[in-house]
Design a protein that fits this description.
With 460 residues, the protein is mainly α. It has three domains: 199 residues, Growth Hormone, Chain: A (Up-down Bundle), CATH 1.20.1250; 53 residues; 202 residues, Growth Hormone, Chain: A (Up-down Bundle). It contains 17 helices and no strands. α2 packs parallel to α4. It is globular. The two termini are 33 Å apart. InterPro entries: MFS, MFS_dom, MFS_trans_sf. It is a multi-pass membrane protein. It is found in: Cell membrane. It comes from Pseudomonas ogarae (strain DSM 112162 / CECT 30235 / F113). This is Methyl viologen resistance protein SmvA.
């Protein structure tokens, strides 16, 4: 139960703008780096195919900290946590502008992610607590739309900045937006807290965090030809997950209740999300890299080529619910996952003389398949949850999304290095075949994951 706060008309009008700005910053930052990685590699003296650590550091940190966001907001209040999250995000961005080595940049991204991990969950929580349920759809639609704009702008803006300025401007642009948002949060945001706080499952948090960190780093270590380290880390991940299961079965209020997995739709949605996103989650990282390293396109062209992928996906929104009602989740998810995997495999057919419009057409089809997949998986995962299960279920789904994206980037980065003994030198003959092998591998994994969705009932 939350202490009742009546918003004055001015605050009620401006608060969604504040949360929307945070969503915009988060999604822009999540996509703007992908196009810039090859030029950043040149400046830092690194191989372009080893730059995925910059993305993974952010994704791991966010996945680990999301489960603590609700408890922190309850403990310290929404205004204090949201304001601190924005300031921490800005401080991390400032550190990124000064980084002169890959390790320094990765460390700075961890600091940035500590703020980013709290902004979006606490923003959603604030909206849930500050507005009546009758206004919830309207307000949430408003605050999430800038996130789509950030996702749309990110690759192109990143390409333009590295081509006509410097990659450091990618992080500089966060500072004025973030500082303005922090000031507005301090002035406008109510400091909502529940009347009764639940006890935080610290042991569960540490065990689940150990699982998240170990499994992503285990896959990433393959890019360093370290099979022993990979085996040790994956063993730690499985051990941590086993210990968490034992712990969650014995405590009254675990971080994520095991009872959630007794719901077939939730269990299938979570496992399907982890597996099927290995292909789609790697596309924003892999494709701009291939366009530049493999095909020799400029960063701006590589960035703009990603726009149709997002636009085509957004254009399918009005039709998705009708398709699901007509055919059901089982048919839609299993067939769409097969199509998604086949389209990713088709990326392997791209050669030095492939017309740009054909690449854009293929990316548009992938965008449609991705949007159908994400929408259907999101709804089928949550559809059976009751009010008591909703908080833990939505939190675990957010963590799974970050975890699956981190695994996708780790897998793509590891495969790029494993298939390429020459470290991905720009313009190297044959480097395009390395990307082809990676696309085929990730597409095959996506196709195999379609079997998971056959566990759903035929009539749902």
């Amino acid at each position: 139960m939350t202490s009742q706060v009546v918003l004055d008309p001015r605050t009620a009008r401006l608060l969604p703008w504040l949360v929307a700005v945070a969503f915009f910053m988060q999604t822009l930052d999540g996509t703007i780096l992908n196009t810039a990685l090859p030029m950043m590699a040149v400046d830092l003296g690194e191989s372009p195919l080893r730059m995925h650590g910059v993305l993974i550091a952010y994704l791991i940190t966010v996945a680990i900290l999301i489960p603590a966001s609700g408890w922190l907001a309850d403990r310290f209040g929404t205004r204090r946590v949201f304001h601190s999250a924005i300031m921490l995000f800005c401080f991390g961005s400032l550190l990124c502008t000064q980084a002169d080595t890959l390790d320094a940049l990765i460390g700075s991204r961890v600091v940035q992610a500590m703020g980013g991990a709290l902004m979006m969950p606490v923003g959603r929580l604030l909206v849930l607590r500050a507005y009546p349920r009758s206004d919830l759809i309207r307000v949430m639609s408003f605050v999430t739309f800038p996130g789509l704009i950030g996702q749309l702008m990110g690759p192109t803006l990143g390409g333009w900045l590295v081509e006509y300025a410097t990659w450091r401007w990618i992080f500089v642009i966060n500072l004025p937006i973030g500082l303005l948002g922090a000031y507005a949060a301090h002035r406008l945001m109510p400091n909502l807290r529940p009347v009764r706080r639940t006890r935080f499952d610290g042991v569960g948090f540490l065990l689940f965090g150990a699982f998240t960190l170990s499994i992503i780093l285990g896959i990433e270590k393959l890019s360093h030809d370290s099979l022993l380290a990979t085996g040790v880390l994956l063993a730690i991940a499985m051990g941590a997950l086993t210990l968490y299961s034992l712990h969650a079965s014995r405590v009254q209020a675990p971080l994520f209740a095991l009872s959630l997995f007794r719901l077939r739709s939730f269990s299938v949605g979570i496992s399907g999300s982890l597996m099927s996103r290995l292909g789609s989650g790697s596309m924003p990282f892999l494709t701009p890299l291939m366009m530049q390293v493999g095909l020799g396109h400029s960063p701006s062209v590589a960035g703009m080529s990603m726009i149709p992928l997002t636009l085509a996906g957004m254009a399918t929104k009005p039709f998705i619910s009708g398709v699901i009602r007509r055919f059901g989740y089982r048919a839609v998810l299993s067939c769409n996952t097969l199509a998604q995997g086949a389209l990713i495999c088709c990326m392997a057919l791209i050669g030095p003389h492939t017309a740009l419009w054909l690449i854009i057409a293929l990316l548009s089809l992938i965008g449609v398949a991705n949007y159908i997949q994400f929408t259907a998986m999101g709804t089928v995962t949550l559809i059976e949850l009751n009010d008591h299960q909703a908080s833990g279920g939505t939190s675990l789904m957010s963590v799974t999304t970050q975890l699956s994206t981190g695994l996708a980037v780790s897998a793509a980065g590891a495969l790029l290095v494993l298939f390429n003994p020459n470290e991905g030198v720009l313009g190297l003959p044959g480097v395009l075949s390395v990307f082809s092998k990676v696309y085929l591998s990730l597409g095959a994994l996506t196709i195999a994951s379609a079997l998971l969705f056959l566990r759903l009932p035929r009539k749902d």
